[in-house]
Every structure is written in structure tokens, then in C-alpha cells.
């Protein structure tokens, strides 16, 4: 709904994604950048922006961290909706949860090697009794032509 905090990457990052949490490896671009697929955002707009893995490294992974969210409660679970693109050969996209008291990131959702090169959408629900961050992790094993992982339009519910 309209109450969701939305990151569409048209200008820069949103409140939920501080600039310093955009680690090297992600670039903000559009489909006309000449880098390869995807050639448009999830709405089919060639000039609209999204995040994708930089193609400068032979193999790469890049994390995108949210700010620290407060614990969820039964009435307000945190729902995060996002559009993602994973190339068919070696792309992997993961979403992880890092709780305040833990050093490690717990993988809560992942997809790899999608057969169709197209945008997909997913919603994850987070329930945490302590403060937490959400980590989006994109990986490609090789930088063959067209191998990529991208993310667009991340929306956070009021419970986040």
C-alpha cells in the first residue's frame, strides 16, 4: 500500500537504505547504460533506474544493508517486497537477516539460475524479537556477457 516506504532508485537510496550501506559492487543504472541486461526496470522502462552488480570484477558478490530496524511485534510484522533479476547461468540472489546479538547473517530466502531472463517479484516477512538489519546479497560466479543480478523497487511495510 501507499504506507510502504519505497526505494525505487530513481534519485538515490531511500531512508531504509543508507548510502554508506551500498557496498562496492552495486551500481545504480538504467537499461540504456550499455552494460548488458536487464535492459529496462521491472516496469519495462528503459530509462528508469535500478541497482545491478557492477561488471568490472571477474567474479563478484555485493551486499546491500538496510538501516537497523526495531523489533517486530505480532501486530506489525515487517514485510519487504522487492523486484529482482537473476541471470540464468551463474546468478544468485539472497536475502539475509542479521539480528543485533548475532555476528552472522542468517539466510532467509534465495534464488539462483532463473531460466528466464526476466524481472520477478517476491515478498518476505520478518519476525524478530530484537533489533535487526536485512541484507540483500547478489552474486555472479563469472562475468560472461549478460550475467547479472539486479534489484528494483524495494518496499518496506510499516512494521519494519
UniProtKB/TrEMBL annotation:
SMART domains in UniProt: MAM
The UniProt record lists the MAM domain at 5-160
Q: Which InterPro entries match?
A: ConA-like_dom_sf, MAM_dom, MAM_domain-containing
Gene Ontology cellular component annotations, sorted alphabetically:
membrane
Recorded hits in Pfam families, A to Z, give: MAM
Give the Gene3D superfamilies listed for this entry.
2.60.120.200
Task: Kindly provide the name given to this protein in its UniProt entry.
Answer: MALR1 protein
Q: Which gene encodes it?
A: Malrd1_3
Amino acid at each position: 500500500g501507499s504506507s510502504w516506504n519505497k526505494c525505487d532508485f530513481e534519485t538515490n537510496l531511500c531512508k531504509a537504505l543508507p548510502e554508506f550501506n551500498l557496498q562496492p559492487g552495486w551500481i545504480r543504472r538504467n537499461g540504456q547504460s550499455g552494460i548488458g541486461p536487464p535492459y529496462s526496470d521491472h516496469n519495462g522502462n528503459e530509462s528508469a533506474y535500478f541497482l545491478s552488480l557492477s561488471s568490472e570484477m571477474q567474479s563478484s558478490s555485493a551486499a546491500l544493508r538496510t538501516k537497523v530496524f526495531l523489533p517486530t511485534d505480532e501486530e506489525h510484522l515487517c514485510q519487504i517486497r522487492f523486484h529482482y533479476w537473476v541471470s540464468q547461468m551463474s546468478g544468485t540472489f539472497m536475502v539475509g537477516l542479521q539480528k543485533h546479538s548475532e555476528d552472522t547473517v542468517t539466510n532467509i530466502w534465495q534464488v539462483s539460475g532463473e531460466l528466464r531472463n526476466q524481472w520477478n517479484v517476491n515478498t518476505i516477512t520478518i519476525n524478530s524479537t530484537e533489533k535487526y538489519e536485512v541484507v540483500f546479497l547478489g552474486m555472479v560466479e563469472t562475468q560472461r556477457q549478460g550475467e547479472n543480478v539486479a534489484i528494483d523497487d524495494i518496499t518496506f511495510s510499516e512494521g519494519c
